[in-house]
């Protein structure tokens, strides 16, 4: 899809559903995936020529995992001139250390109740889930 077409689709949706009013401050939740980054990019470009003026900010919820690198998102926001905020939480610690849960696909039948993000740079999965993906 070409950038101009993306702008056109986003603008049409905004107009059809009256999503933006003059002076709005819009926050885009950024996970780092293609959907949220595309929305941020489209809104950033749209604010240059959209008739209603609006401010744009990006937010990421930091789940508390080690190896969660946000530097590329920070750089993109800087390039797009978009304010960027990271909301730090202890969700990873609560889920995996206090509640002893696992991201294993086998859920209850999995003997692996670990916090794998502490030692593994890859996705937070137990050894049984990783074996299935290989």
Protein architecture, described:
This protein has 134 residues and is of the alpha/beta class. It is 39% helix and 16% strand. The protein contains five helices and three strands. A three-stranded parallel β-sheet has the order 1-2-3, with helices on one face. Helix 2 (34-46) links the parallel strand 1 and strand 2. Helix 1 crosses helix 2. Mean pLDDT is 83; it is low at 114-124 and 129-134.
Strand content: 15-25%
Tally of helical segments: 5
Indicate the low-confidence ranges by residue numbers: 114-124, 129-134
Largest sheet: 3 strands, parallel
User: SSE order in H/E notation?
Assistant: HEHEHEHH
> Helix fraction?
25-40%
How is this fold's topology laid out?
Layout: H1 3-16, E1 24-29, H2 34-46, E2 54-62, H3 71-80, E3 83-88, H4 91-98, H5 127-133
Parallel strand pairs: 1-2, 2-3
Helix pairs in contact: 1-2
Task: Give the gist of this structure.
Helix content is 39%, strand content 16%. It has five helices and three strands.
Which terms would index this structure?
16% strand, 5 helices, alpha/beta, elongated, 134 residues, disordered C terminus, 3-stranded parallel β-sheet
């Amino acid at each position: 899809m070409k950038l101009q077409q993306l702008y056109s689709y986003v603008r049409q949706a905004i107009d059809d559903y009256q999503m933006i009013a003059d002076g709005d401050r819009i926050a885009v939740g950024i996970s780092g995936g293609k959907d949220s980054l595309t929305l941020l990019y489209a809104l950033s470009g749209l604010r240059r020529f959209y008739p209603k003026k609006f401010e744009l900010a990006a937010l990421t919820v930091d789940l508390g995992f080690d190896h969660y690198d946000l530097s590329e998102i920070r750089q993109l926001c800087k390039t797009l001139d978009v304010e960027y905020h990271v909301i730090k939480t202890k969700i990873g610690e609560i889920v995996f250390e206090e509640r002893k849960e696992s991201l294993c696909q086998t859920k209850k039948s999995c003997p692996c109740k670990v916090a794998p993000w502490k030692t593994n740079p890859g996705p937070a999965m137990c050894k049984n889930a990783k074996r299935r993906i290989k």
